[in-house]
Amino acid sequence: MDQKKEKNGGQESVVPEKDYKEAYEQEHYKSTYLAGRVAELEDQVDDLQFKLDRIKNNPVWKASTPLRKCMHFAIRQVDRVKNCGSIGGVVTKMKYKANERKAMKHYGTESFPSEEERKRQEETVFPNMVKISILTPLWNTPENFLRDMIGSVQKQTYGNWELCLADGSDDAHAYVGEICRELAGKDERIRYRKLEKNEGIAGNTNQCLTMATGEYIGLFDHDDMLHPCVLFEYVKAINEKNADYVYCDEATFKNGDINQMITMHFKPDYAIDNLRANNYICHFSVFSRKLLDGTELFRTKFDGSQDHDMILRLTDKAEHVVHVPKLLYYWRLHAGSVASGIEAKPYAIESARGAVADHLRKHGFEHFTITSTRAFETIFKITYEIIGDPKISIIIPNKDHVEDLRRCVTSIIEKSTYDNYEIVIVENNSETKEIFSYYEELKNNPSIKIVTFKGAFNYSAVNNFGVGAATGDYVLLLNNDTQVITVNWLEELLMYAQREDVGAVGGKLYYADKTIQHAGVVIGLGAHRTAGHTHYRQKRENLGYMGRLCYAQDVSAVTGACLMVKKKLYEEAGGLDEGFAVSLNDVDFCLKLRQLGYLNVFTPFAELYHYESVSRGLDTDGEKAARYNEESARFREKWKVQLEAGDPYYNPNFTMDKSDFSLRV
């Protein structure tokens, strides 16, 4: 029999020739059938269009147009109220928007230095007064954009800079060169070169670099503006923190007025998983010229996302990537800018995907996929290859609550597509006969075992006991009041947990009403100033702050209600601290992993319901409240330094009183 070889998951398998013929015939049949159906549907569409045109030309239809518009407007307003959940939701949203408008004013020209502060900064002498070469490629730049851009550099309170302008404009925009030569004649720090031909963003910027003489390089778009203090703040970071790569927060603005902001992006500190999924660093990048040794600045094959490629490469080499958490860059919104929508530069999507793929391959990853998310075309989901077939031990503490446990276990068995797992149920002081009857049922499943922890309830001790009975390479702490939603939840967690640089991985959890319970933990957030959940109680379909509910990212901690980690790391970190009997043990564990040098990752692609507190109740009154206060005090003392420093994956411009990324104004 003739045979052909076919690649399958990296392996070669032999496929009979006749199978190919059968497959071809099936596909041919499907193609013919679909072609017929398409023709039928086209005829139906033509018929419906004819009927619609007849209705629209009817005098009665035309006369009722104003009434229909009023009706549709009323329906939209009702829908908006529904989307907010309640009148209270509308009020909350209005307050958020009002606070945001106040913040926009605060971070605009109101944040510019007074004459006294400007004088202080201008007279400051740093130990290392580095020269910063700002590279700006020009191409048919509108005159007002050009003058605003150059003016924002000339108004810097730190004076040791040079502005390198490489001009690829065509003959119809000769005024660009005239203006630059005029300004350069008055300020020797402005350097201008007319290029023989336009080489695109990457090529023109590389031409700017040949003109640069500074120890540090800054990248600045020809249509944007800088805050007057940005270079001062950066040189301060270079001197105080030995920064070799610096970036800041930024805003988009319209109508040529930086006070008319569209969005404000307050960023986390350096976070590699965030950066792989989303070029959140973006503007304003300034870095040591030494980072370019042996490498290019911009690579023309990634034109359109050349900055994402460059940031990935240079932050890889940098020793001290420093985020200045101040809004110091203003990104102009106008037709043709990426800020106005990716539609302006559709080629940027493929360039960004290629840049991320190149970076991943250099880090040893293979057989990954990079796909756009619902947040934005260049905000990516990275699907890593699962290496081997490691065993996962799912640890579920339980006391009574037979229906909760049954729902949890059933969802694991029925929905999980990954099958190399065991379920370790840790029985702790149950009293009802129903739960023991259910245990007897479960004993028929060889993948499930029940172990008994004797002693008073202590969440940490119960889980540590369960992990001790586990035989898997990975352990997954899971609450008994959870229910699996996504079928490949184990793969989504495992693809991150298997990485050598990752500690704990957590999924996205919802309450029964499909609002978010967990999407990552921020330390210091909340009334007790211990830790809190971001995006708390937002709707499942929400994109999150700057799309952060749509991509995997580094966080300080994840919830123990669904937490995967290598078993050897669990043991290396000492397991859960049994001094935290009920609360904050998961956050404490994640911070111990960070102390050991590991990342903790939240992925929104492993989704579960979490009927929180069904099992143990709430910590809002009486003895439980006293215990929570005691554990909170212990946590604040143990992690005092980290809490004072602030969560590196949040931003000090956000209030710590709310979980909705409200600004501290």
UniProtKB/TrEMBL annotation:
InterPro entries registered for this protein in UniProt: Glyco_trans_2-like, Nucleotide-diphossugar_trans
One Gene Ontology MF term: glycosyltransferase activity
Pfam family, one: Glycos_transf_2
TM segment ranges: none
Highest taxon, organism lineage: Bacteria
Transmembrane helix as UniProt keyword: no
Keywords for this protein: Transferase
Domain Glycosyltransferase 2-like per the UniProt entry, residue ranges: 133-292, 393-571
Region feature (Disordered): 1-22
Protein name: Glycosyltransferase family 2 protein
